[in-house]
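Quick start: what a row looks like.
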Amino acid sequence: MRKLKSFLGLLNYYSRFLQNSSTLLHPLHNLLRKEAKWVWTSECAKAFEDAKQLLQQSRVLVHYNTRLPLRIACDASPYGVGAVISHVMDNGEERPVAFASRTLTEAERKYAQIEKEALAIIFGVKKFHKYLYGRKFTLITDHKPLLTILGPKSAVPTLAALRMQCWALILMAYSYDIEYRRSADHANADALSRLPTASFDNTGEEGVWSYTMNGWPSHVQEEALRPFFIRRQELSAEQGCILWGQRVIIPPGYRQRLLEDLHHVHPGICRMKALARSYMWWPGCDGEIEELVKGCSICQAVQKMPAVAPLHHWRWPERVWQRIHIDFAEKDKQYFLVVIDSHSEWLEVFPMSSTTSQNTIVVLRSLFSAYGLPEELVSDNGPQLVSREFTQFLEGNGIKHTAVPAYHPASNGAAESTPHTVTGRTPAELFLKRQIRTRFSLLKPKLASRVEEKQATQKRHHDSGGSCLRVFQDGEAVRVRNFRGGVEKWIQAKVLQRLGAVTYMVQEGQRQRTVHVDHMLPWRGKGEQIKKVLPSPVVENEPPVIRDCVFPAVVPSAPVKLIPPTVLIRPAEQVVDVSSSHTESKSSPEQRRYPERVPPKKLDL
């Protein structure tokens, strides 16, 4: 009720400039009757909005004129201050130029009334400083003691409060006269003080608008104000908005909407930040942009490759032919099978007429007959190397098969590249063991320590970029790299098992495959759930392929039932029947050069 009376008093003060004001304000006047109930109807709301529009019309407001006398009326209420700057027209009428008001802070509300009235004067003078500085004007107040305390001809009061002395010193920079006006005739400023504009609604951060307009203190304790306090020298106000340089400080209520506008066409993090830095700012703006993009499923499906995982070395085998790496190479339309011993880097290359599983097994039989069976064989996921025939061949000879992740040749780097110089010795020296051991050999350091030192150096140089190993849990929803073409670069998958330090077995749709951590990203989709993954069918009695990449644990092989048909020896593709050869040797004993040897009962290489 009191606020309505103050608003009607303001309109009554300028009623001579308002056309049909009595008719317009009739619904509001009915609320002030004693017998009427307080019901704010749509007619009251419409009358209130129309009255505010009338105050802003050119019939009421006038443009600032340096030739017309200038007045500034100030008043204070228990919770706000207000000021009106106006011109005295040639006919003696007072026409407003601008209005200003603000609420009082908790500390200012505890001021004495005389201090509140003085604060209203200081607020009005600072608010309209550009209009008042350098010309004569008249201060109007409804508090008579201020005529003496803040009068232009009065000295600075020595017995007044310290803040009153400071305000008196501020007013000494202006040329003014001060006049007293009764509260009944002071309705324009009185209404603004009782209907103040919220001080902080332009930024959403408490105190920013007030400090920007009235000056910042030497320090602030509120954490919410610290980002603004650091930039206080660069803050300015224009048309009710606070600007940091050329960027508008966005209130909290509008930030989410502007973020959605920035992200409308999914331009990515960098483009959104660049666009935002041209127009807007608020504390934590960059972080909110990053979170929005990381939570968008569309942006996640087409994002770039992640940072390369830290270098993870294969464990150096202590014995020759303990672990071998194989791969196929092509040069001038000729295929080659490349086999490298991981201990010595000894290289074996075989020309291949075709790269089928059967031909690969024939070559490996010949190689194993010369050097023996390795404990582990590492290869990629080529169809001839993961077929059932090749898997049964390895299982039958007690060889552990490790398949590296698809589309990640670095995991099988020993076979993908030529021998390197990590060991510091020639492959022949390590593989053939030609160097004789003497007492002086004890002076040399152990080879294993040198390899570990070289690997540590490589890891340090490789990981100098600050990359860290990303770890995923079993059952976690992830995105894996799509190498089969299509619009999406990253597709949905689910982690089934962690096979090694940087390899995982994942379920992608209806199939399972081994994936390197460089081809995996965490699932950050909002409002989406990964589809239920159905396990792929398992053929009964079919041996599984062990898929590991780094630091594989050596699993002792169980006794294998060997079938003694034939033995293949080098050169490749030359088959010798052991049983028939033995029969022929028995039929012609006079041709034997050496004593007869009984072959083993079970032999299958």
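That is the whole record. The longest strand covers residues 94-103. Confidence is low (pLDDT under 50) at residues 199-204, 530-589.
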